[in-house]
Design brief:
- This protein is an alpha+beta fold.
- The protein has 2 domains: about 120 residues, Phosphorylase Kinase, domain 1, CATH 3.30.200.20; about 270 residues, Aminoglycoside 3'-phosphotransferase, Chain: A, domain 2.
- The strands form 3 sheets. Strands 1-2-3-5-4 form a 5-stranded antiparallel β-sheet, with helices on both faces. It has a 3-stranded antiparallel β-sheet with strand order 6-8-9, covered by helices on one side.
- Helix 8 runs parallel beside helix 14.
- About 40% of the residues are buried.
Length: about 425
């Protein structure tokens, strides 16, 4: 059950029956778009003119070649150095505008450059190209970066000792980020120019954890950031683009996040208009570890953004009890408490209050994942209601109906009624 729920935190649905064939075809289709000669020339120019060759990794299933949203292939140089070239996947981004896909490349490159000056363990970003750039003959967007060391941290299979080792090191990573000068807008770096030397450049936030949203912001206040994020989900729900199978419940939930949760989270920041970097896909596999569970790198920063401290340093997805998270039981899990204790023991008292908070920010960030059952949706809603009001809601479905009735003044509810009617007619 836990493994099934964890899969729902990922953005890509795979063909489990024939994964090698499915991904093999995708690799071939993507490679056909790449001007390999031009790609290698671009890499060589960034590596002292040393010749190189392009390789997709030996295909042994999804993990060998694919991350959730990228093809990560090899550039091997004649001097035996090796880089990874990251190229957005075809199926992962087929529903997204081209400029949004390109913003992920720019944001990750700029974020890696920013982090490289902080002491946070990351791979080196060497260069990138955008498909829309007339001077880029490669044919696709891409980014060159150092080879990713180690292996992804598997929080489900890790022993208690292995978790303690990784959590202790990750606490130091958060402390390093907290020590950096905060930015004055909720935003993404978005471009290499948005760095420490040019702090007046603030780029729109790079989508969300499930790539449902387009670029949005930047925002001057925590309240603007939280309210706008929820409001954009409401727009997509009313257009039938998100959660059509439980549109009324989803609309009720995101109205709750906008009207009740957003003000609570913003109030915790007070008048503090400061924002810190947050990894928005922190399920645990964003951490690369060696055989002794030393953290070698934090990877996959495409969606990184600067957010209020409550979200940046609050309980994260990789310390969450996944069954509890989706099962309608609010509150911190054992790993959350362990991580908070490690922060306290290592002297990062300034972050302890965030890490030991009530996980409201985590649930706001999570929202509703794709592919949930209605029971799971009601559980997620019930958990937030319990955090807000302190009562166990035995009949969340009744709350959703009452909330829906209270929102009939919103013209978007009529659009949803029409959408549901059309779906029912098609299914009849």
């Amino acid at each position: 059950m836990v493994h099934t729920l964890l899969q729902k935190l990922t953005r890509i649905q795979t063909d489990e029956a024939t994964p090698n064939q499915s991904f093999g075809r995708e690799v071939q289709a993507l490679r056909a778009r790449i001007n390999v000669t031009a790609l290698c020339q671009a890499a060589s120019a960034l590596h002292g003119g040393i010749p190189c060759r392009f390789f997709t990794r030996a295909f042994e299933g999804r993990k060998a070649t694919m991350s959730g949203i990228n093809l990560d292939a090899w550039i091997r140089f004649a001097d035996r150095d090796a880089w990874v070239v990251r190229i957005p996947r075809i199926t992962a981004f087929s529903h997204l505008p081209a400029d949004l896909i390109e913003s992920f490349i720019q944001n990750e490159y700029a974020t890696l450059k920013w982090l490289s000056r902080t002491g946070v363990p990351v791979v080196e970003a060497h260069g990138y190209g955008l498909a829309s750039d007339p001077s880029n003959p490669v044919g696709v967007s891409y980014m060159f970066m150092g080879a990713m060391p180690g292996k992804p941290f598997d929080v489900i299979r890790a022993t208690r000792e292995q978790k303690l080792r990784v959590y202790g090191q990750y606490a130091k990573v958060l402390a390093v980020i907290h020590c950096q000068k905060p930015r004055k807008f909720a935003s993404s770096l978005g471009h290499p120019e948005a760095n420490e030397e040019n702090r007046n450049v603030h780029y729109a936030v790079a989508s969300d954890s499930f790539t449902h949203l387009g670029r949005h912001g930047p925002y001057r206040t925590p309240l603007e950031y939280f309210v706008s994020t929820a409001e954009q989900h409401l727009e997509l729900i009313s257009d039938g683009q998100l959660y059509p199978e439980y549109a009324k419940e989803a609309f009720a939930y995101y109205s709750l996040l906008r009207d009740k949760v957003a003000p609570v989270l913003a109030a915790r920041s007070g008048d503090n208009r400061e924002f810190w970097l947050k990894h928005m896909d922190d399920k645990g596999d964003h951490i690369r570890v060696d055989t002794n569970y030393n953290i070698k790198a934090i990877v996959n920063w495409q969606l990184a953004r600067f957010v209020p401290a409550e979200e940046a340093f609050g309980p994260s997805l990789f310390t969450a009890n996944i069954g509890q998270l989706y099962g309608g039981t609010p509150g911190l899990g054992i790993d959350d408490e362990v991580f908070s204790s490690l922060l306290r023991d290592t002297g990062y008292q300034g972050l302890v209050n965030f890490a030991s908070s009530d996980e409201l920010a985590r649930r706001f960030q999570l929202g509703l994942a794709d592919g949930l059952s209605k029971t799971e949706v009601l559980g997620l809603i019930g958990a937030v209601l319990e955090i807000l009001y302190g009562d166990v809601y035995q009949n969340v479905e009744a709350w959703c109906k009452a909330q829906w009735v209270s929102m009939t003044h919103d013209p978007r509810t009529k659009k949803i009624e029409e959408l549901l009617g059309a779906m029912q007619a098609e299914g009849a």
